[in-house]
Amino acid sequence: MSEFSLLDPFQFLNVPLGEWVEAILNYLVQNFRGFFRAIRWPIDQVLDGIEYVLQSIPPLIGIILSSLLGWQLAGKKMGIFCAITLFSLGLIGVWSESMTTLSLVLTSLFFCTLFGIPMGIICARSDRVERVIRPILDAMQTLPAFVYLVPVVMLFGIGNVPGVLVTIIFALPPLVRLTNLGIRQVPADKVEAGRAFGCTPRQMLFKVQLPLATPTIMAGVNQTLMLSLSMVVIASMISVGGLGQMVLRGIGRLDMGLATVGGAGLVLLAIFLDRLTQAMGERSNADNTLHWYETGPVGFFVRLSRSAKGQQPVAKTDP
Amino acid sequence: MTDSNEILSIKNIYKVFGEDPDTAMEMLNNGAEKDEVFDKTGQTVGVFDASFSVQKGEIFVIMGLSGSGKSTMVRLLNRLIEPTSGSIKLNGLELTGLSDAELLDVRRQEMSMVFQSFALMPHMTVLENAAFGLEISGVAEQERHSRAAEALSQVGLGEHGSSYPHQLSGGMQQRVGLARALANDPTILLMDEAFSALDPLIRYEMQGELIRLQQEQERTIIFISHDLDEAIRIGDRIAIMEGGRVVQIGTPEEILRNPADDYVETFFKGVDVSKILKAGDIAEHNPASLIKVNGSVHPFEASEICPYGYLVNEQNQLQGIVPTGDIAGQSPDLSTLQGLQIDRHESIYSDTPLHEVLRKVAEVPYPIPVVDRCGAFRGTISKNLLLETLSHG
Fold first, then answer.
1. How many CB atoms sit inside 10 A of residue A20's CB?
2. Which of A262, B240, B261, B299 lies 20 to 30 Å from A78, alpha-carbon distance?
3. B297-312, pLDDT tens digit by residue?
4. ipTM entry
5. Domain B3-110+186-271, CATH number (from 3.30.70.920, 3.40.50.300, 3.40.1010.20, 3.40.50.720)
6. B13/B50 Cα distance (integer angstroms)
7. Min distance A283 CA to chain B CA atoms (Å)
8. Which CATH number does B279-392 carry?
9. Contacts of B136 in chain A (CB under 8 A)
10. Which of B100, B106, B132 to mutate to test the interface with A (most CBs of A within 10 A)?
11. Strand spans (E) along chain A
12. B350-373 pLDDT, tens digit each
C-alpha cells in the first residue's frame, strides 16, 4: 500500500456503485418479483391484441388497407409507395416476421405516447420538473442497452414483453423532449391572445398549445418509431421474435443471407413507418383548405355516393 | 362629460417588474424616483402612479414612445400583467381583487383585445378564429358561428370565413383579429398598437374602419399607439405616457395648445397644426364688429378698427357683411345696409380643419366669418390670425 497522496485521492476515496446496484437488484428480485410480473400484464394484453390482428390479416388485404391509409393521409403517391414497400416485404419472404416486429413497435409506441406526451406537457409547464426529468432522459438514451437488458431479464424474465419494455426505455425520450419543446415554442402572442380571451389552463392546452405543437409532437412520434425499430434487434437477444431475431440468428450462424434478408426487412419497414408518420406531421401544418373527408379514398367514396344519389343540390364543388 | 358616463377608472396604478416589488413600492411611497429604485434594487418600474378615467363610448388613446409603459398599461387593465398596487374599476367593479374565475368572466365578456401581431390561430379557419372568444366562453357551435360570421361581415370579410389566416394579407388578418374581438360584444375594446404592423395605406384605411365601427356601435375603445397622427385622427382624448408616467391627458387640441411639459411639446413639434385645429378653435369674436338686425337695425358703433361689420339676426344667424367705411358715420336703416352689403359673401363651418380653409381666407378681402352647423355666427378668422396660429406650431 502506498502512502496517502493528495494528487491521487481515489486510492482511498471510492463509491462502490457496482456493489450497491447489485445489492438493490438482488433485493428487488427477491422481494418484488410479483410486482414486476404484474407490470407485464397490460403490455402483454396490448401486444397480444395488436399481434393477433396483424397476423390474422391476409398479406394482400394488409397491403391494400395500408395503401388506402397512406392515400388518405398523404395522397395517392404515398398510397402507391406504401403498396410497393409492403409488397417487397412479402416478396423477400418476411411478411410474418415483419408483422411481429410491427406489433412490437406499435405496442412500444402506444405506451410511449401514453406516458411520453403527458410527461412532455408537465415538463413544458414546470421548469423544476424539466430539470429533474432531463438527466433521466439523458440516461435512458445514452446508457448502453446491454446494461439494463440483464436487470430487465432478472425482473421480468425473457420474451416479447420485456423486449417491449426495453424498447420503451430507449424510445421514450425523444417524444418527451419534442412534446416539451413543441409546447414551449408556441409563439408567446398566441398564448397571450388565449389568456386575453379568458382561456382556463386546460383550454389553453387543448385549444392553443397542443394544436400549435402538433407538428413538433409528430416529429417526436416519428423519432420514437425509428428508435423502437432499431431497438428490436438488440431486444432479440432476450428472445424477442420478428425480424431482429432473423438478423441475430444469421449473425450467429454466419448465415449472411438470412441476416441480410432480416436487415432489408427492417429497412423497408422503417421507410414505410417513417414516410407515413412524416406525412401525418406535415398534414397537421399543411395549408390545405379541404376537410379530411374531402380527400383521399374517403373523399373518393363520399363523392361517389353523392353522385350516386343523383342530382341533389350539392353546391359544394371541390376546388 | 359627466362622471356617470365613466366606464373605467384607473387610480394610482404601479407596476414593478422584479423579484421583490414590496421593497420597491415602499421606496416609491417614500418619494423615490424610478431610477433610484432601479439603482438600489435592480427592479424596473413599468408604470408609475398612473391615474385616468375613460368615458363610455369614447376612443381613448394611450400614446408614448417605446418603453414608455403603454403596452404594460393596457395589459394591466385586463390583468394579463398583475398590477403591483392601485385600483382599476370597471363600471364600479374593482378588478384588482378578483378571483381567477371572476377574472376569466371579465376577460370573456367585458374586455376583448386586438394585438399588434394579430395573434391568430394558424390551425383554425377565419370563421373559427373569429369565434375563438365565444368558443372559450362555451357558446354552442351554431350560435358562435353565426355571431362570428356577423362580426366578420362588419369588418368586410364576410366571404373569407373558410380561408386560413396565412392565406390573407396583413390588413385582412388584422380585420379577423378585430372581428374576433367584436364577436364577444365586449364593453371595452383594448387595441395594442393594432395597426402598427400594417403599411401606411392599409393603416389609414383601418383607422377609418375603426372610426366607422365606433360611430355605429358606440363602443368604448382604448387604443395604444406610438403614432401621433394616428392618435390625433382616431382619438377623442389622448393620454401621453413617458417613462411609465401619464404626463398629460386631454383632447388633441387641448394638448396641442397647452402642452404640460417640454416632452409633450417636442412630441407635438412635427405635427401639422392645420390638421388638428379647427376653424372654430381659433375664430375671434369681436362684439364691436357685430351689427344686430331684427327687422330694424340696432344701434351699433362702426369703429375704425373694424373695417367690416357682420350682420346677424336675433338667432345670431349671419345675414351679411358690410364694409363699415361705406356707412361713414351715418346711422343707416336696414335697406341701406342691405344695399351696401357684399354680394355672395363666403363663410366657413367651425368644424372645418384649418388646412382646408387656407385658400378661402386668402381669397376674400374681409376676415372670413365662421359659423357652426346651425348657421350661428361664431367669430371671424383674419389672414393675420391664421398666419400667426400656423407659425406657432
1. 10
2. A262
3. 666 655 556 778 787 8
4. 0.75
5. 3.40.50.300
6. 5
7. 11
8. 3.10.580.10
9. 194, 197-199, 203, 207
10. B132
11. none
12. 888 888 888 888 888 888 888 888
